[in-house]
Design goal:
By secondary structure, the chain is an alpha/beta fold. The chain has helices at about 5-15, 20-30, 35-45, 70, 75-90, 100-105, 125-130, 150-160, 185-195, 235-240; strands at about 20, 50, 55, 95-100, 115-120, 135-140, 140-145, 150, 165-170, 175, 180, 200-205, 215-220, 225-230, 245. The protein has a 7-stranded parallel β-sheet, sandwiched between helices. It has a 3-stranded antiparallel β-sheet with strand order 1-3-2. The longest helix has 14 residues, at about 5-15.
Length: about 250
């Protein structure tokens, strides 16, 4: 079977199921395991699938945005670890931006720095910051129901009056070629504006965001430092060639 035919067969398998095993593909194509592994690597590099242990998985649909409730139940321990590490980087008297999202929300309970000012486009984030006694400002803008994020030109204009010591951003995808991405162009515009207004921009992400890309480009990988929970060694080695990574080991 030719390479193109194998690739077509692999992608057809992934149309039918979320994950396909290498053994299934060797049986279907008659190719060796090493050949299938090379095919999966080529298809992953093209952004058409995601390698997983023992096989491959579908890449996420480019414009689908999970709700806050859906995201909050995923990788919760890793998000708390990343949040704890991110909070430890905040210093007394800092002015910071905290993006909407469940991973960035996880950093707020761990903030210990004194006399800080926080700006956020997250509805839940604003409430939690106020409850913690932190001086907080909302960006304004349209509140997006599914993600509880303030978006649109109002949020971008709201950000343009501030400059930040540090910004903590959430993303939906971290990909070597696509960079940092999110499904919604209006949310991407807010993230992009916050990133360029921060002396030290950080992206908070759990392991599921790596090797994923969604509809809208935010920035190249080198433009921010990644803060994450525990990720596979192979993933860390691949991405630390493109940008700095701070990994929370517990």
């Amino acid at each position: 079977m030719l390479t193109e035919e194998r690739h077509f067969t692999i992608l057809n398998f992934l149309k039918e199921k979320e994950i396909v095993k290498i053994q299934e593909l060797t049986d279907a194509t008659g190719a060796s395991e090493s050949t299938i592994r090379r095919d999966l690597t080529d298809l992953e590099d093209a952004g058409l699938l995601r390698r997983v242990h023992g096989g491959a998985a579908k890449v996420s649909r480019k414009r689908i945005e999970p709700t806050m409730n859906e995201k909050s139940s995923r990788f919760s321990e890793e998000k708390r670890a990343a949040g704890r590490l991110a909070a430890s980087l905040i210093e007394n008297d800092d002015c910071i931006f905290i993006d909407a999202g469940t991973t960035t929300l996880a950093l707020i309970p761990y903030i210990q720095a004194k006399n800080i000012i926080a700006v956020t486009n997250g509805f839940d984030h604003l409430r939690l910051l106020v409850e913690k006694g932190i001086q907080a400002y909302g960006t304004g803008g349209m509140l997006k129901q599914s993600t509880q994020a303030f978006t649109g030109t109002g949020a971008v204009h709201g950000l343009q009056q501030y400059w930040f010591d540090k910004a903590f951003l959430g993303v939906n995808g971290i990909h070597l070629k696509a960079g940092y991405t999110t499904p919604d162009p209006e949310e991407a515009a807010v993230k992009r504006e916050a990133l360029k207004r921060a002396q030290q921009p950080y992206v908070l992400a759990d392991a599921s965001k790596f090797q994923e890309s969604t509809f809208t480009h935010i920035a190249d990988l080198k433009e921010a430092v990644i803060i994450t929970g525990k990720i596979p060694e192979k993933t860390r080695k691949i991405f630390e060639q493109a940008t700095d990574i701070k990994e929370a080991l517990s």
